[in-house]
Amino acid sequence: MSYIKTLLVTVFMLVAVGCATTEAGSEQARVTPNYNFEQLEQVDRFRPSNNFSMAAWNSQVLLLSDSVKTKYLLILQRPDTGFDFQAPVGIKRFSSYITAGQDRVYALNTVAPVGITIRTIYKLDDKEDLELAKKLVTEAEQAAKAANAE
Hints:
Layout: H1 2-21, H2 25-28, E1 41-43, E2 45-46, E3 53-56, E4 61-65, E5 71-76, E6 89-92, E7 98-99, E8 104-107, E9 116-124, H3 127-149
Antiparallel strand pairs: 1-9, 2-7, 3-4, 4-5, 5-9, 6-8, 8-9
């Protein structure tokens, strides 16, 4: 019994020392893309039709196609690398609406799908809005990449 206690104390001390010596600023210095787009119409929630589809634009931005004209840009709270590989997308809704800050999306072909909350929803009414959204997302990614390269 004494051997197990000694082993546990040793492991605990090694973990504590490892955490204490890890640089806290290394991850904080990384600039992430700013996906706040004042040019697009932001909505808190919407009610999708029965036949909607979703596709990932990158690890943090998804496009939900609700009808021929109406699409929604979903910005997630954080990136998920599962979306980088064109994973099928699942959504967990708590009502008939899709709501920012409440509903979660999943990359379905990962070993352990983790739900990520939708942070912001933008409504794209026409082709011009869709093209503008593509441009804004690309610019945000390029600005973050340039800031991290410095």
